[in-house]
Amino acid sequence: MAVTAASPQIGPRPARPLAAAETFRLVLPPAELTVHSALPGLRAAISALVHPLFEVGDTVSPTAPRLTVTARAGDNTALPGPQELGTAPQLLVHPDGPRFVVLERSAGRTVLLRDGEADSAPLVITATPGAGAVSAEAPDAGPASVRAVVRLLGTLLGGQLTGRGAVFLHGSAVAVKGSSVVMLGPKHRGKSSLAFLAVTLCGAGFVSDDTLVAWSRRGGVPPALRGWPKRIGIATALLAGHPARGAFERASLRRHGSGTQRVCADAAWSTAPDGRKRIFADLDEFTSLTGAAVATDTRPAGIVLPQADGDRRGWQIDPVTDRTEALDGALLSGPDLRHYTDYLGLLPRPRPEPAVRADVLAALGALPCVRVRYGPDVNADFPRFWDEVTAALALPVGAR
User: Fold this and answer.
1) pLDDT reported for residue 351
2) DSSP string covering 148-211, please?
3) What is the residue-wise DSSP string for 113-158?
4) pTM of this prediction?
5) What pLDDT digit, counting tens, does each position of 185-218 carry?
6) 358 Cβ contact list (under 8 Å, min separation 6)
């Protein structure tokens, strides 16, 4: 497999010159990293893509693992050639990647190549296993390198969380006054759609439209729920008649560039994978275009199991007593944890806390839960629909 790197546009850079070296702290409690970067503007770029889901700050911890980021000097001839890539051991946990090519592995030193993806560059990663210090060498300071570094940062933070018992879920969530409503279920059931409409039409806080992490610091205390930063997918059907449609059409989103307006033009309502049209916005783009506020460390207060149906008129809300199937289907495990697991032991192993996972799952399993079957006309009457959903979950009036 050849190593490739895309060069997408990720928006205008700040006009003022940026310092070539910067040190900052990246946190998703209880995980943290100290980042020392020689890539100009890396902190600003990371902040745009992940803050506040990942907290970016100046105060660094002397005990936190450290990542040093540099750019390769000159051209990319230092990268291993096809023959070396073809014979070196490889770690490919999931067919969709990322792939790690093990260039060197010993008790005192690990050298990896993290393959470039469609929109990110290849990184050469060097670490002393378990020592808490990792270095990443990028081709340059361009957009593709920034995305590659952001994804490596996510893996290093996620590995700390997974190792300590945090629970990762495939789901969406929104929040009001610290209480979050979690949407769970298989793909194409409407989780992201409900989250988008609740945020943009009802003033809910944005938590996540795809991946959630739940963590409990001690037994008996409700878990904290936080979204994981990644691009936000928005079905074009939701923008038909939506107040924010014009803003999305005029924007040059990084994923789509000048083609954003063309993608927005198709507003067919569909839940079928081959009929759905979506646009994708980074976190800073989403908040700028919608005015949405991002909520962190919310307390989950209810679960919604959505089921979008293009042939249905109106909606139906039914209580659910057995949440086991929904939770089991939403839990990320095995290859699906590839972005949140330090498989190669680059950082020190976290202190295991087996009770954390059990406490989080018990708390989620005790939440009020409803199944919501709805049709496309919900879009035009969403505030009333959402009020009925939150009332069915018995949320306090102030948290609806």
Assistant:
1) 80
2) HHHHHHHHHHHHHHHHTT-EEEEEEEEEETTEEEEEE-STTSSHHHHHHHHHHHH-PEEEESSE
3) EEPP-TTS--EEEEE-TTSSEEEEEES-SSHHHHHHHHHHHHHHHH
4) 0.88
5) 988 888 999 999 999 999 999 999 999 999 987 7
6) none
